[in-house]
Amino acid sequence: MSGESLYERLGGTYAIAGAVDVLVDRLFVNAEVNANEGVHAHHGDPANAPGYKFLVTAWSIEAAGGPKCYPGLSMVEAHDTLAITNDQFDSVAYEIRGTLKYLGVPTAEQDEFMEIIEHYRPEVIEQTPVAQEGTLEPAVAQA
Ligand code: HEM
């Protein structure tokens, strides 16, 4: 091991910003991702691209162990009104993997970054409340 952070091994801020530039352009026209109406309301408007690229770049820099610089929402807050399915998460994950491959990022670094992405799946996808006996308040107060 070189001892370098993933951030450094990915090539630092310029390389990460370059990758996010490619990624977001693909996500904004990805049919599966845009099949989600709430996502399309955002990704369907090209005016959202520059700010979104900035936020996803900063998030990725921090997540890869670079400087703390992400000023945006938590992953739960950013996605909780969007009802994102597991399949839609997979579509985004394919685009991330595809972008890293396209840019020639070595497999070890691809795998390491994808593990970070996968770690956030539960925060991003729709939270389905699981009714467990005895854990939910009765809908109507007992007489
Ligand atoms: C681990 C995976 C993901 C990461 C790291 C990520 C990252 C981000 C970031 C940094 C933001 C900006 C938050 C802010 O406004 O402060 C954001 C917003 C957003 N993300 Fe994600 N995201 C992920 C997965 C997804 C998926 C799977 C979808 C769609 C299928 C998605 C769709 C969106 C949309 C539409 C917004 C904008 C919401 C709005 O402001 O209206 N994201 N995401």
Automatic annotation (TrEMBL):
UniProt keyword terms in alphabetical order: Heme, Iron, Metal-binding, Transport
Gene3D superfamilies: Globins (1.10.490.10)
Highest rank taxon of the organism: Bacteria
SUPFAM superfamilies: Globin-like (SSF46458)
InterPro entries tied to this protein: Globin-like_sf, Globin/Proto, Hemoglobin_trunc
Protein name: Group 1 truncated hemoglobin
Taxonomy of the source species: Bacteria, Bacillati, Actinomycetota, Actinomycetes, Pseudonocardiales
